[in-house]
Design a protein that fits this description.
Blueprint: H1 2-10, E1 13-15, E2 19-20, H2 45-49, E3 78-82, E4 90-93, E5 111-113, E6 126-131, E7 137-140, H3 141-144, E8 150-157, H4 175-179, E9 182-191, H5 192-199, E10 207-212, E11 219-223, H6 224-229, E12 232-237, E13 240-241, E14 251-253, E15 266-272, E16 287-288, E17 294-295, E18 304-309, E19 320-329, E20 335-341, E21 349-350, E22 352-353, E23 363-371, E24 376-384, H7 393-400, E25 413-416, E26 422-425
Parallel strand pairs: 6-15
Antiparallel strand pairs: 1-2, 3-4, 4-5, 6-7, 8-9, 9-12, 10-11, 10-15, 12-13, 12-14, 16-17, 18-19, 19-23, 20-21, 20-24, 22-23, 24-25, 25-26
Bound molecules: ligand MTE and molybdenum atom (MO).
The ligand Nc1nc2c(c(=O)[nH]1)N[C@H]1C(S)=C(S)[C@@H](COP(=O)(O)O)O[C@H]1N2 binds next to strand 5.
């Protein structure tokens, strides 16, 4: 009696076209579905009970530095492109559709370089803090490593991410191909506030300038309030030293800010009274409004979500129960809720948020869907603790005009055809 009641509750629809209540992911909801519940076919029992041949011979030996399974070697960063005439001025995109949880493996973290990856010898690298300070300071890696460190799980998103969504025609790429200038890592390092306190910041100082050691000499202005709040000199990424392509041996990490401001290969911080107005924050990385004027300093990445499964390249099979899974994030703080629609935005149901739900980090969401095998359009929309809501594409384009080139955070839709194939659509 009780059992059948809870089974019924677990399978309760919360929105049109078969979207189920998120409690299926709480308690043992999926167990209530029984065998084959999520559309899986049960493989032969007899075959599974036989001892595999490989279990009768010794396996391979240990290794100094691990490799993934050769059967996973096809999972790679994509869209790898260098501007004509350059070697490393371009980007590579994280294959979001192939990953689970909230951590991006370091080897798959997206890359965006304006002049390639410098080959920095750690013992030669220095970080200079100067400008409006009582005591200019110079740190080598060894000195920095003796400061108290903190670890935080934060996303980095390039402000140009997803901008193909502005185009009149939907681009047919995977989730990572559309949105993969986006990754999330555990970053460990020294809070910038500690170093600034040691240098003694002049009360007149309101900003600082951060400069990279690459030949692009990437420079950005950062408000002092941000520097003193949660800015990090990151030394470690997912437990090991930063990857060269992500800033080895040290980068600035500004949680929630557009990726461009998190200066890699950080070599200099100059404390200033105002913003420096560098090339990368005037000629580039500003948003143009419909009237032709430009916004200065759109630092915070706004609330956004994407569905990673099902998605282009991850087709559906026969009708049945499926998990819709995706990522939500916001530069303003924590994700407060994610809603999913499987009827093209006519009705919405709450998705389950997987622990942990952290500030300025990826949040994994899940929803259960009973697909009846007819064409459907699925989409997700995220909300954050500041009260902000992810806009529809129409709302975003209307509000910002087509001249706007950065910070595209509109809802994206996947169309499921009757044969289960997935395409990108403007819904
Ligand atoms: N020194 C330096 N820092 C840089 C860049 C660069 O080219 N040089 N690119 C910026 C841009 S545009 C982005 S989106 C992020 C990307 O960080 P990632 O390559 O670690 O993903 O680094 C930023 N920091
Ligand atoms: Mo970027």
């Amino acid at each position: 009696m009780l059992e059948s009641k809870s089974k019924e509750a677990a399978l309760e629809s919360v929105a049109g076209n078969g979207l189920l209540h998120r409690r299926i992911f709480i308690a043992q909801g999926t167990a209530l579905l029984g065998a084959g519940g999520l559309g899986l076919l049960t493989p032969s029992l007899a075959a599974a009970q036989r001892l595999p041949n490989l279990a009768k011979v010794p396996g391979k030996s240990m290794s100094g530095y691990g490799n993934r399974s050769p059967y996973e070697a096809h999972i790679e960063r994509n869209n790898i492109l260098s501007y004509p005439g350059t070697t490393g001025s371009g980007g590579s995109w994280t294959p979001l559709e192939s990953l689970e949880g909230i951590i991006t493996p370091s080897a798959l973290h997206f890359e965006r370089h304006h002049s390639g990856v410098p080959d920095i010898k750690p013992e030669e690298h220095r970080l200079l803090i100067h400008g409006l300070v009582d005591r200019p300071l110079v740190f080598d890696l060894d000195a920095l490593s003796r400061y108290p460190m903190v670890s935080r799980i934060q996303f980095i998103e390039c402000s140009g991410n997803s901008r193909v969504g502005e185009g009149a025609l939907p681009v047919q790429k995977t989730c990572g191909g559309l949105h993969g200038l986006l990754s999330c890592s555990e970053w460990s390092g020294v809070p910038l506030s500690i170093l600034l306190d040691e240098a003694g910041v002049d009360p007149k100082a309101r900003w600082l300038l951060a400069e990279g050691a690459d030949s692009a000499a990437m420079t950005r202005s950062v408000p002092m309030a941000k520097a003193m709040d949660d800015a990090l000199i990151a030394l470690y990424q997912n437990g090991e030293r930063l990857r060269p392509s992500n800033g080895y041996p040290m980068r600035l990490l500004l949680p929630g800010y557009e990726g461009n401001a998190s200066i890699k290969w950080l070599r200099r911080i100059k404390v200033t009274s105002g913003p420096t107005m560098t090339r990368n924050e005037t000629a580039e990385y500003t948003d143009t409004r419909p009237d032709g004027s430009s916004l200065l300093f759109t630092f915070e990445m706004e609330v956004k979500s994407v569905i990673t499964a099902p998605s282009l390249g991850r087709s559906m099979r026969q009708p049945g129960l499926y998990e819709i899974s995706g990522l939500a994030w916001s530069g303003a703080g924590r994700i407060s809720k994610v809603e999913v629609s499987v009827d093209g935005g006519k009705s919405w149901g709450l998705a389950a948020l997987a622990d942990p739900v952290l500030s300025k980090s990826f949040t994994r969401f899940r929803a259960a869907w009973r697909w009846n095998g007819t064409p459907a359009v699925i989409m997700s929309r995220a909300f954050d603790e500041s009260g902000a809501q992810q806009p529809s594409r129409k709302q975003l384009l209307e509000a910002r005009g087509l001249k706007r080139n950065y910070h595209y955070n509109a809802i994206q839709s996947w169309k499921i055809a009757a044969n289960g194939e997935v395409t990108n659509v403007h819904a």
